[in-house]
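Quick one, tokens below. Sequence please?
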């Protein structure tokens, strides 16, 4: 009976939603096509951001995002340019260096972005003239770094301090001069012509310097526990994560696949990276330089959170600006951990597929509420132990208590993340609704016009039409009428969201 009533309401929804007391909204097949959500992904065209290069070129991101989310890759030549765009809100997500992340949370706010995944570790060295074999021999010399206050600048200044070699941020008083802000190709040229003593550089420029006779005085990996330190992380703006969590899950799935490709295809990955670099920059790397560079970099989904904290400490020790904030809140790794667990846990995927195939909806949350079973909104069962249902629980039949428990569940459900991008579950699970979308459907089903629904929700009629068009994309419907019936079939017109 419930499904019959819902189907009847669907017809009312679409008939009412298409009418208006003033300017009618388009109806049926003449409804305006919904504009796909656009994900603006920033990245720097460097080897330490190869997951972005491969994820874009080989279609890992686009495949997982699907037709309803348009990927807009935005390449940058330097970290500084990307940092400016990210701080200004011109990107939704970005592959970023540690100092780019730290500078953005200083310039914007600590809550502006979230680190949702790692991408790369390693790939930086101090290369010097072949005659230099000890730190003391650097006195009076000039060393280059890619950017002032950048990751390599921090690493170099801290290392020099450990070896009792003085440097200053301003001119004068330095035993070792540091020049910053030169492009990597210029640094290599300055090194070969003798204008600088050496440079703390990332691959491939450190490799090119050694190919011109340079000596590796320090491989930065040797300074870190297990040789691991974050070179690139994937960040997402807090706003995009809050409003478009399925898109973030899809992006993360593409990131995992791109890293898997980098690990599993050592023969084909080099021409693939060179192809991406040629397309984006107009230049490729000599195969021996590229091969040697890739041996220094570990592509990983682990953000190596401890290294970012250490970067802040090293910046403070070196006298460089650093954020005075708790970095723990900068991370949201729940979606990543879920995807990684699912990818390596066939039993979990089988269970999720079985549940969703039976009509269940599944979401993930960082903080689990008590184990609660609500049956037909008439009775509720609260289990004593989460891991052992055999321990029994408390059965509640009082209508007010059941309603309160249902409201608690609804709050937890709305705050949780849908699993529409979970590997293996994307096709099994229907795309879910946000609380706002569900409220819109209910109002239109009740017979309100677009304008009346807009007033109830506190939004414009134009926004109502745009949201309805987006719902049509989710449903794969060519008209509002068809969308209504499909919504009813999925149970989207129920009063409480998912059946409980």
């Amino acid at each position: 009976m419930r499904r019959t009533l819902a189907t009847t309401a669907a017809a009312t929804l679409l008939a009412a939603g298409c009418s208006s007391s003033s300017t009618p909204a388009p109806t049926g097949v003449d409804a305006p096509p919904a504009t796909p959500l656009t994900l603006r992904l920033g990245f720097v065209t460097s080897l330490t951001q190869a997951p972005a290069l491969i994820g874009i070129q080989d279609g890992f991101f686009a495949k997982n995002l699907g037709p309803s989310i348009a990927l807009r890759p935005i390449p940058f030549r330097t970290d500084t340019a990307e940092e400016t765009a990210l701080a200004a809100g011109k990107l939704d997500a970005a592959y970023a260096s540690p100092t780019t992340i730290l500078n953005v949370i200083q310039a914007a706010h600590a809550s502006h972005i979230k680190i949702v995944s790692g991408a790369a570790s390693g790939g930086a060295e101090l290369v010097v003239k072949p005659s230099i074999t000890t730190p003391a021999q650097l006195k009076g010399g000039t060393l280059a770094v890619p950017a002032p206050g950048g990751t390599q600048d921090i690493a170099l200044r801290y290392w020099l301090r450990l070896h009792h070699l003085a440097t200053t941020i301003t001119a004068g008083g330095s035993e070792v001069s540091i020049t910053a802000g030169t492009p990597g190709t210029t640094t290599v040229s300055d090194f070969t012509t003798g204008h600088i003593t050496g440079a703390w550089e990332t691959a491939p420029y450190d490799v090119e310097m050694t190919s011109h006779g340079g000596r590796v005085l320090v491989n930065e990996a040797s300074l870190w526990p297990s040789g691991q330190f974050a070179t690139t992380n994937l960040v997402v703006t807090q706003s995009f994560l809050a409003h478009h969590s399925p898109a973030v899950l899809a992006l993360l799935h593409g990131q995992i696949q791109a890293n898997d490709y980098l690990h599993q295809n050592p023969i084909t990955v080099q021409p693939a990276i060179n192809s991406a670099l040629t397309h984006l920059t107009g230049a490729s790397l000599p195969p021996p330089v590229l091969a040697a560079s890739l041996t220094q970099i570990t592509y990983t989904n682990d953000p190596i959170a401890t290294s970012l904290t250490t970067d802040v400490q090293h910046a403070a020790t070196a006298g460089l600006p650093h954020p005075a904030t708790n970095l723990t809140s900068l991370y949201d790794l729940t979606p990543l951990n879920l995807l990684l667990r699912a990818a390596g846990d066939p039993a979990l995927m089988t269970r999720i597929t079985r549940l969703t195939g039976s009509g269940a909806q599944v979401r993930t949350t960082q903080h689990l509420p008590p184990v609660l079973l609500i049956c037909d909104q008439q009775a509720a069962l609260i289990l004593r132990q989460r891991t052992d249902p055999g321990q029994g629980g408390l059965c509640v039949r009082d209508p007010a208590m059941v309603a309160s428990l249902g409201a608690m569940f609804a709050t937890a459900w709305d705050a949780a993340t849908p699993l529409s991008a979970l590997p293996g579950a994307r096709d099994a699970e229907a795309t879910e609704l946000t609380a706002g979308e569900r409220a819109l459907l209910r109002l239109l089903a009740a017979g309100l016009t677009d304008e009346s629904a807009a007033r109830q929700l506190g939004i414009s009629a134009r926004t109502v039409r745009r949201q309805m068009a987006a719902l049509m994309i989710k449903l794969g419907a060519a008209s509002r009428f068809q969308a209504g019936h499909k919504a009813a079939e999925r149970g989207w017109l129920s009063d409480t969201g998912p059946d409980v």
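The first strand starts at residue 37 and ends at 44. The radius of gyration is 27 Å.
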